[in-house]
């Protein structure tokens, strides 16, 4: 069964500092990996995704993530955090089912709440 | 395009009442799904549909029914609400061939007393 672990429930950083949010996954084949962001009272917005190819993927709002197969990780990074980045971040894994057809069964991690201090 | 819309935004029910959460999308997406979000548990898949007339269960389907009579709409029904169904519910959709690239609605916050 597929699963996602986000080890950090809550992270606090100062504005302008760098950020890394951790994500570890379990999946039986090549995974599709995603990071979503959720602002308070809002739905989820896709930050970036990895399907194949270059293991360093760029997303919106200056975020990037690196897929490391050997470590089963897909950590999210940003070199300089802005106050508007305060939100909850979710890592998700999905991919083709046993029949080879991608039915979009995303499994989400528990989420990491990011607080940004001025 | 309005994207994925959900109604109502907030709802309070008493135990045993029934209701339907509405979800609609105007992007002609084949795939639609319902998730519930509970603190510390991320999002969990309730039901999903790969097209009109086709639905299947997700991770936590008990207590919920769905149907998909049109491409646009995917309502979620609670037949007899229980306090354990207090949660935030999200609907999502994605286009053919890109089922993992899901677009989420704004959510419905449901409280069952």
Task: Describe the model.
The complex is a heterodimer of chains A (about 120) and B (about 110). Helices cover about 0% and strands about 50% of the residues of chain A. Chain A has about 120 residues and is mostly beta strands. In chain A, the strands form 3 sheets. In chain A, strands 2, 5, 6, 10, 11 and 12 form a 6-stranded mixed sheet that branches. Chain A is globular. Chain A starts with a strand and ends with a strand. The model of chain A is unreliable at about 100 (pLDDT under 50). The model of chain B has no long low-confidence stretch (mean pLDDT about 95). In chain B, the strands form 2 sheets. In chain B, strands 2, 4, 5, 6, 9, 10 and 11 form a 7-stranded mixed sheet that branches. Chain B has a 4-stranded antiparallel sheet with strand order 1-3-8-7, with no helix packed on it. In chain B, β4 and β5 form a beta hairpin. Chain B is built from no helices and 11 strands. Chain B has about 110 residues and is an all-beta fold. Chain B has strands at about 5, 10-15, 20-25, 30-35, 45-50, 55, 65, 75-80, 85-95, 105, 110.
Give the largest chain-chain interface (CB within 8 Å): A-B, 26 and 27 residues
Total number of helices of chain B: 0
Strand fraction of chain B equals over 45%
Shape of chain B: globular
- Pattern of helices and strands of chain A: EEEEEEEEEEEE
Spell out the blueprint of helices and strands:
The complex is a heterodimer of chains A (118) and B (113).
Chain A: E1 3-5, E2 10-14, E3 19-21, E4 24-26, E5 32-38, E6 44-50, E7 56-58, E8 64-68, E9 73-78, E10 87-94, E11 107-108, E12 112-117
Parallel strand pairs in A: 2-12
Antiparallel strand pairs in A: 1-4, 3-9, 5-6, 5-10, 7-8, 8-9, 10-11, 10-12
Chain B: E1 4-7, E2 10-13, E3 19-25, E4 31-37, E5 43-51, E6 54-57, E7 64-66, E8 76-78, E9 87-94, E10 103-104, E11 108-112
Parallel strand pairs in B: 2-11
Antiparallel strand pairs in B: 1-3, 3-8, 4-5, 4-9, 5-6, 7-8, 9-10, 9-11
């Amino acid at each position: 069964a597929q699963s996602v672990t986000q080890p950090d429930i809550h992270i606090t950083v100062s504005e302008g500092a760098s950020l890394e949010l951790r994500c570890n996954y379990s999946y039986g084949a090549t995974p599709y990996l995603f990071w979503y962001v959720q602002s308070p009272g809002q739905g989820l917005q896709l930050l970036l995704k990895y399907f194949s190819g270059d293991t360093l993927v760029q997303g919106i709002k200056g975020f990037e993530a690196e897929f490391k197969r050997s470590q089963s990780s897909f950590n999210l990074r940003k070199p300089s955090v802005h106050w508007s980045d305060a939100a909850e971040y979710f890592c998700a894994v999905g991919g083709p089912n046993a029949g080879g057809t991608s039915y979009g069964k995303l499994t989400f991690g528990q989420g990491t709440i990011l607080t940004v201090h001025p | 395009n309005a994207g994925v819309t959900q109604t109502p935004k907030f709802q309070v029910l008493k135990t045993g009442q029934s209701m339907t959460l509405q979800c609609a999308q105007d992007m002609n997406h084949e795939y639609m799904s319902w998730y519930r979000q509970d603190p510390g548990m991320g999002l969990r898949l309730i039901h999903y549909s790969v097209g009109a007339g086709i639905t299947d269960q997700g991770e936590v389907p008990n207590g919920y029914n769905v149907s998909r009579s049109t491409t646009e709409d995917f309502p979620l029904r609670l037949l007899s609400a229980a306090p354990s169904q207090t949660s935030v519910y999200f609907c999502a959709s994605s286009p053919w061939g890109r089922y993992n690239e899901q677009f989420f609605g704004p959510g419905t916050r449901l409280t069952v007393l």
